[in-house]
């Protein structure tokens, strides 16, 4: 039982072209979460982006592009809070406190750091190593209870839960003394929401590799700003095997490309793989790809066009980000005040005289 009010938080890094994997695995699910009776916060995590070097002008463009994707996909900036991380100082502040809660041994186990740092670990930024702690701060600054993320973020969510738990334990007396015990500690133990038919969207050229912005072949992914003809061409060129589609999900085992295309179709259409195979089982790929082209173009082409429109005049996006930051800060600031009291800092009181 949790005493915490349901609150949804998630983030997307502004580090390059958004593709179908980002849309189906994250953004589309953020849109769907708005149907819940909960405040949703969607954050463009620019402070995470600079854990790997980013060209400054490109970064600015990508922050606006991710925001545009959120809006074009149907995130309502009045109902949800859309903002970028660096405009809300509480993320960095809470991350410092969490740096003093998290243990080296915990971070040493993070597989994403090992992947991203590669062989030259000595030369990786400290920010890259600390990335999961900042992510915990993102989530817990709002005491978020639910976080929709892709499968690859599961380990980071577990770390977030460990940090919340350790903070609650290490400071339990102080939490109670300051009247911040919600009956379940100060921080909630956040639930990851992982799943859906496209939790992992794979490359169109190799069904065993994740769709990725860094794949050398542009045909491996559908970018959210691809036009209708490009989308159609990429789907038609997608790798398949020679057999017809099975009529049951079990028949997709060992057929990664077939599984991926069926998963994409299901996610775009908001149905299950079972539903897709009920309609298309027995079809040849040429026919199925025709149906997939139609569905993908119908969904993605207007989304890409709206993104381009929004990005062409950033003033609307920038105003939405400013409004979102203000509303986000209104939630995060009281959390940080409480954290400062709990750990024993002396907070700045009211100023004695106006300056
Ligand atoms: N690490 C996440 C990713 O790469 C992005 C992210 C940062 C995030 N902070 C978050 C996701 C907080 C969910 C909640 O996808």
UniProtKB/TrEMBL annotation:
Biological process annotations from GO: tryptophanyl-tRNA aminoacylation
Cellular component terms per the entry's GO annotation: cytosol
First-level EC class: ligase
Xref: Gene3D superfamilies: HUPs (3.40.50.620), Tyrosyl-Transfer RNA Synthetase (1.10.240.10)
GO molecular function, one term: ATP binding
Alphabetical list of PROSITE patterns matching this protein: AA_TRNA_LIGASE_I
UniProt-annotated binding residues for ATP: 13-15, 21-22, 150-152, 201, 210-214
Protein name: Tryptophan--tRNA ligase
Source species: Methylobacterium gossipiicola
Gene name as annotated: trpS
